[in-house]
């Protein structure tokens, strides 16, 4: 809702999920595709509708040729040749003749006639058992939508085209992880969405890209337009439209202050991550893409504690082969030396939908409780083996570990380990160098896994607690739904007690326990997490220096006392307040 301000300046309040300040113009994206309705037309309108279609086909053809030219210049003509198939769809006379026939006989708007003819064509292609023809479904659907958008006049406005090339703040109802995986990092200075929560993958991506993001800005896409001047404040969850001179100068001051702290923190890069009394904490980084490994190496992190490999899958149209995965995993393993990298096996599902699955139209009725994480890998054995073999191949050149996501029982871990053993044997017989003793871990993200941690502990070398999911599954609160964002409380006593159980089980079995959920990067919780006994914190790159400074400011005994005390508290707010008090006593400057 608009807050207040000078005449032309309007403020909207949402939830700040990634810190920083961005000033740029708005670029609104992702209006969903709505199926056309069967509007009736008169006999004398038929010719006019035909002419509209011819014009839309001409425009579509020009757009596709332009895209083809741009892609050929950027990545080569081989990749650009995929658009040849799109052009062929536009010239398919069988389809176009049918459209003309239906238009005359059914007398409905050309959008609907074109849509229904193409739908029939797509349905018959889907039934043919030929991978080449099935792939064409995607092309035909893409062209169909483009033609209909052109018929509706949803052409890119000049403002939109300009905004896409200039630095901008991306505004959308929601951004899927695959949208964020393909954004142009040079141009996108921030994200603002109508929906989403602190641990939605859009928010995680923003933190990992180190750009400000605000979610929960209801109705914003209908109020603003592309080209509007914006100031996005990710610290306080504010979106300011047409910021006036006073607002701009106060934000410039804030930016300068924050800049000084950031610079000071950068100096910690080569220092040890240890408490005042010398307890060493492994501080590692979370990444989604290969190129981020270089940043981890530079930031002073001790390796990668969570590599979310599914983002690699969500980028393209087809699943990567074993060789393609091995190549990128090897690159990361080499870059991280002398430290290591922990590959989290595929965690498709939940709010991370693979393009290929989405295009197959297989919707999950309850995605976070459905076909996700290790469940997918165990059912799609060939896919899982490709990934395990690729990770094992990377283990031959660097220090590599792997962990399974969304484990809910020890049986899943045993099955996964059985397939891993099979892959090891195959590679050894093929004479490929691998690390036979690479560390294997289970992510603890589901209460059933936390409650049986002592059983799972005998099958693995480490635990990594995924608090983003552990919180959502423990409290039954959807992590991406801003309407229940207030209930999403990492300090909930049930979450803290489950975490304690996990650390205790790890200790009893002589394995290590870390955290790779977003809670690990929140410095309010650093004293509590150390006090509970976690030895590793894996955080987004932008948070790493702050967490290091927090660790260096603490004493183990203070942290242990805090953990003991809050384990007796029964309310999230009380636990949170105690954590804030301890954090403020030790590093007030970081919490400003
Ligand atoms: C988590 O759940 O805490 C986690 C690290 O995994 P993701 O956020 O990718 O689900
Ligand atoms: Mg998770």
Structure description:
It contains 26 helices and 16 strands. By secondary structure, the protein is an alpha/beta fold. Helix 1 runs antiparallel to helix 3 and helix 5 runs antiparallel to helix 6 (131-151). Strand 7 (229-233) and strand 8 form a beta hairpin. It binds phosphoenolpyruvate and magnesium ion. Magnesium ion binds at residues 405, 445, 466, 468-469.
What is this structure, in a nutshell?
The chain has 592 residues and is an alpha/beta fold. The protein is 50% helix and 14% strand. Phosphoenolpyruvate (PEP) binds at residues 204, 306, 308, 347, 445, 466-469, 516-517.
> What is the 3D shape?
globular
Mean of the pLDDT scores? 88
- Amino- and carboxy-terminal Cα gap: 26 Å
Number of β-strand runs: 16
In CATH, the architecture of the largest domain is Alpha-Beta Barrel
- Quick one: CATH class of the largest domain? Alpha Beta
Which percent range fits the helix content?
A: 40-55%
Name of the CATH superfamily of the largest domain: Phosphoenolpyruvate-binding domains
What's the alpha carbon Rg, rounded to whole Å? 26 Å
Number of domains: 4
Present the secondary structure layout.
Layout: E1 10-13, E2 15-18, E3 21-29, H1 46-75, H2 77-80, H3 82-90, H4 93-106, H5 110-127, H6 131-151, H7 158-165, E4 168-172, H8 177-181, E5 188-193, H9 201-209, E6 213-215, H10 220-223, E7 229-233, E8 238-241, H11 245-266, E9 282-287, H12 292-299, E10 304-308, H13 310-315, H14 322-336, E11 340-344, H15 355-359, H16 374-379, H17 381-395, E12 399-404, H18 410-429, E13 439-444, H19 447-451, H20 453-456, E14 462-465, H21 467-475, H22 493-508, E15 512-515, H23 526-532, E16 536-540, H24 544-552, H25 556-566, H26 572-586
Parallel strand pairs: 3-4, 4-5, 5-6, 9-10, 9-16, 10-11, 11-12, 12-13, 13-14, 14-15, 15-16
Antiparallel strand pairs: 1-8, 2-6, 3-7, 7-8
Helix pairs in contact: 1-3, 1-6, 3-6, 4-5, 5-6, 14-17, 17-18, 23-25
The structure holds phosphoenolpyruvate and magnesium ion (MG).
């Amino acid at each position: 809702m608009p807050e207040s301000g000078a005449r032309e300046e309007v403020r909207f309040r949402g939830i700040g999920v990634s810190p920083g300040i961005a000033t740029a113009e708005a670029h609104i994206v992702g209006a969903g595709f709505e199926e056309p309705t069967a509007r009736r037309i008169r006999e004398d309108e038929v010719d006019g509708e035909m002419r509209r279609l011819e014009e839309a086909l001409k425009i579509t053809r020009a757009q596709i040729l332009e895209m083809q030219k741009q892609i050929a210049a950027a990545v080569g003509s081989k990749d650009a040749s995929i658009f040849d198939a799109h052009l062929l769809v536009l010239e398919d006379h069988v389809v176009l003749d049918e459209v003309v026939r239906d238009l005359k006989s059914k007398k409905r708007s050309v959008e609907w006639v074109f849509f229904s003819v193409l739908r029939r064509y797509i349905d018959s292609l889907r039934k043919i058992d030929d991978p080449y023809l099935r792939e064409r479904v995607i092309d035909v659907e893409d062209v169909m939508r483009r033609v209909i958008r052109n018929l509706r006049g949803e052409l890119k406005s000049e403002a939109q085209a300009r905004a896409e090339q200039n630095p901008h703040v991306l505004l959308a109802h929601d951004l899927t992880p695959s949208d964020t995986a393909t954004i142009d990092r040079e141009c996108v200075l921030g994200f603002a969405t109508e929906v989403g929560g602190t641990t939605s993958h859009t928010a995680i991506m923003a933190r990992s890209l180190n750009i400000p993001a605000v979610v929960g800005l209801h109705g914003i896409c209908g109020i603003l337009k592309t080209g509007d001047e914006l100031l996005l404040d990710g610290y306080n969850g504010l979106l300011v439209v047409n910021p006036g001179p006073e607002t701009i100068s106060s934000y410039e001051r804030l930016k300068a202050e924050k800049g000084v702290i950031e610079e000071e923190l950068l100096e910690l890069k080569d220092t040890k991550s240890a408490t005042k009394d010398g307890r060493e904490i492994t501080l590692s980084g979370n990444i989604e893409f290969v190129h981020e490994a270089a940043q981890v190496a530079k930031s002073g992190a001790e390796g990668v504690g969570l590599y979310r490999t599914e983002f690699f899958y969500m980028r393209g149209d087809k699943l990567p082969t074993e060789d393609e995965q091995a190549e990128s995993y090897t690159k990361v393993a080499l870059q991280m030396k002398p430290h290591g990298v922990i590959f989290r096996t595929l965690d498709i599902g939940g709010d991370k939908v693979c393009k290929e699955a989405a295009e197959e139209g297989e919707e999950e009725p309850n995605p976070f409780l459905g076909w996700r994480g290790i469940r997918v890998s165990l059912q799609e054995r060939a896919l899982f083996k490709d990934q395990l073999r690729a990770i094992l191949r990377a283990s031959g050149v660097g220090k590599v570990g792997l962990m399974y996501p969304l484990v809910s029982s020890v049986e899943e871990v045993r099955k996964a380990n059985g397939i891993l053993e099979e892959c090891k044997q195959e590679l050894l017989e093929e004479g490929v160098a691998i690390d036979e003793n690479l560390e294997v871990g289970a992510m603890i993200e589901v209460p059933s896994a936390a409650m049986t941690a002592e059983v799972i502990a005998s099958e693995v070398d480490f635990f990594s607690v995924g608090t983003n999911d552990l919180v959502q599954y423990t409290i039954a609160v959807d992590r991406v739904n801003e309407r229940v964002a207030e209930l999403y409380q990492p300090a909930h006593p049930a979450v803290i007690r489950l975490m304690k159980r996990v650390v205790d089980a790890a200790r009893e079995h002589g394995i290590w326990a870390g955290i790779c959920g977003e809670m690990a990067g929140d410095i309010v919780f650093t004293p509590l997490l150390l006090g509970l006994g976690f030895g590793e914190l894996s955080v987004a790159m932008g948070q790493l220096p702050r967490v290091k400074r927090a660790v260096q400011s603490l004493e183990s005994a203070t942290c242990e006392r805090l953990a003991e005390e809050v384990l007796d508290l029964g309310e999230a707010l009380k636990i949170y307040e105690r954590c804030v008090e301890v954090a403020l006593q030790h590093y007030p400057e970081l919490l400003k």
